[in-house]
Amino acid sequence: MTLRSLSFWFGASIVGFFLVIAVIGPWIAPYGESEAAGDVWLPFSHEFLLGTDSLGRDVLSRLLYGTRTTISIALIATLLSFAIGMTLGFTAAVMGGFVDQIISRAVDVLMSIPMLIFALVVLALLPSSAVILILVMAILDSTRVFRLARALALDIAVMDYVEAARLRGEGLGWVMRREVLPNALPPLISEFGLRFCFIILFLSAVSFLGVGVQPPQADWGGMVRENANAIGFGLVLPLIPAGAIFALTIAVNLLVDWQLSRSGLKRVR
Amino acid sequence: MTAADAKVLRIADLHVEAQDSQGQWHGIVKGVSLELDRGEVLGLIGESGAGKSTIGLAAMGYARGGCRIAGGSIVANGQELAGADRDELRRLRGVRMAYVAQSAAAAFNPAHRIDRQICEVPVSHGLMSAEQALATAKRLYRRLRLPDPEHFGRRFPHQVSGGQLQRAMTAMAMICKPDLIVFDEPTTALDVTTQIEVLAAIREAMRGEGMAALYISHDLAVVAQVADRIMVLRHGKLVEAGPAERILREPAEPYTRELVNVRRAMAPEKPEPATPPQLEARHVTASYGNGIRVLRDVSIELHRGTTLAIVGESGSGKSTLARVLTGLLPWEAGECLLDGRPLAKRLKRRSKSELRRLQMIYQMPDIALNPRQTVREILGRPLEFYFGQRGAEQLRKVEGLLEMVELPRDLVRRLPGELSGGQKQRVCIARALAAEPEIVICDEITSALDPLVADGILKLLLRIQNESGLSYLFITHDLATVKAIADEIVVMYRGEIVQRGAKRQLLSPPWHPYTELLLSSVPEMDVRWLDRLLAAREVSSTAPEPAASLPAPRP
């Protein structure tokens, strides 16, 4: 087995594991998400496999529930940011001129504001709900997707086959879907993995700062924050959700690397 | 020095292999041997894939990425290059041997002045001081007949023309006085009139400096002007070798005979058209966003079932005319008519039927076909889009189209990347035909193809015209193609029409000076063609560029 396929299987099995947990987590959790099941800060035991937190809730159960929350919010946000970024990016590249200028400059304005601070302000002002959280992350992240999608589509839009489609009388949607998209797809798939990681980290960061997923709902970033004090008492508790974040991002990155090397993009000419 | 060392280059039984995507090694040069005397020019000729560039690079001990020199010996000046270590080769390359590539624009760094780039090699190898190098460079500029040799090198690469840059690259190759220069298609990307200047300058400089050269080209007529001997290659093997004159006059092998006699496609004479024009442009003026006029008062008429050739060099506005007619570039003044009805300026305003009747074929089939669509999808889409055909009916039609362009039916499932250049261009033709057009605009459609393949494409187009009465608007810089296929000819120069007429009338005197320049610039299969031409033009080192005798462009 080559190193490449090894990293693929390693990454794929971790990502697959987390996806399964995200689906079945709540059913296999021994306790409820916010149920105070025992004493505070209990060590690992048969009763509480990963111990309990500052409110006496079972850490394993919260981790299982949190997997679903974190992954689903991040996945929806990433999908949405790609839908927005790719549509706008392809439109800007294929139409060019005035349309391109308007969209690109608007994106520049959005990108010039530091992402985290912007998100903190917006999330603090707006009522906290999962929908708003997803929308804010998706819109902020779509600026990065837009840049890549536009750059890729610009290279494709100058090809004669795109001109041939336009001369045939094809509409913008068909040109984007059938001529541009298939040729831009491999790098965009890799980018999807990377952006998914960034969104997980970003979600964890805003949750850690208290404006993300609201307690008592569990998510990985929030769990780190809730139990941050424990590290002062020599407990490994906050490192458990942090480790989950770490494992998932590394695994996704391994898959991205594999995908990039498969599509030959790593061999830069 | 032994007798064997008198040869500048001695390649014996050279084998070069390339690796495919599965990691298998395949021979691309299979046992070629050649020898090169001091001061001799050897022409390597063949179609793409013949291995001529690979041999040129191997002569410098180099193999492209994914290739390897698998066997044989390459002895330059008595030194074995096959298997020589990198430091050794680095000392030789650029100094004892040099390379001139097809695209000079890609070989020069746009951020540095030409002088600096040309003087870099001799100075960094410690062969000359900076002043000596500069003096040598200026001497070479003069020898290569570059304008204002004292100050030419002060310019940046984008400030000189393509032909001048190609000569500057030759100067770069010559500055260390190498024993061997490898020219890889140095004039292929140039206009015919520029090609003459570069060809003459290279030849004169080679003779003056007494260097040996490998001259690689797909154009036998061009090679014959510079080479003493010619080697014809095909599929990595030698077909025939001999003195240039003998190869042209008495080619022994059938393949060489085909190369010498290529361009046999010929349109039959047609009667004068009596019908009103099918496609017409009246006094069209157009410019790009920067305000530079690219078309000035251009009028053309294309009659049903005929071929109108638009001839001109790059920058003459011939491709812009195609963009105007197809609606990609709105014109400023004038009008365009299809079957007597005015066409909208913009593509979006045109009806589906207008779009359908006017189809286009492109120069580069590689980028004219979506690499992620199968032949079935490529040909099926216009059928579905214009006629609503789907499923089995569509497939039958696609197969019929493939048959019409003389391709096997089982290509339907292939992707463009699995086809050869000529096959791709045939698929492009089939895509245009799928719309059942009345007029097909062909923009330089044969210039990226090998001569024999291009000839096949022209014959195909003529046959289809015969069968279905299509009209072609044929845009090209290649007068040989025009002679083969056109009924009427329009000659364009810097955005204006300088001469027009039926083929027979236009190809015989009296000519507009520019038409005459174009006609005389087409290389002929005769080793003394360039000599005769230069003698006729009385080109001396002080002569102005040929184009200077033409009317200056109006701003």
Specify the biggest β-sheet of chain A. none
* Order of helical and strand elements of chain A: HHHHHHHHH
CATH class call of chain A: Mainly Alpha
Proportion of β residues of chain B?
15-25%
Biggest sheet of chain B, strands in spatial order?
6-7-8-3-9-10
Gyration radius of chain A, in Å: 22 Å
Number of H/I helices of chain A: 9
Rg of chain B over CA atoms, rounded to whole Å, is: 25 Å
What's the architecture of chain A in CATH terms? Orthogonal Bundle
List the uncertain runs of chain B: 539-549
- Whole-number tally of structural domains of chain A: 1
The best one-word shape of chain B is globular
pLDDT below 50 for ≥5 consecutive residues: which ranges of chain A?
265-269
Outline of chain A, from the CA principal axes? elongated
Helix content bin of chain B: 25-40%
Which homologous superfamily in CATH is the superfamily of chain A?
MetI-like
Structural class of chain B: alpha/beta
Number of helices of chain B: 21
CATH topology grouping of chain A = MetI-like fold
Judged by helices, strands and strand pairing, the structural class of chain A is: mainly alpha
Give the amount of beta strand of chain A, in percent.
under 5%
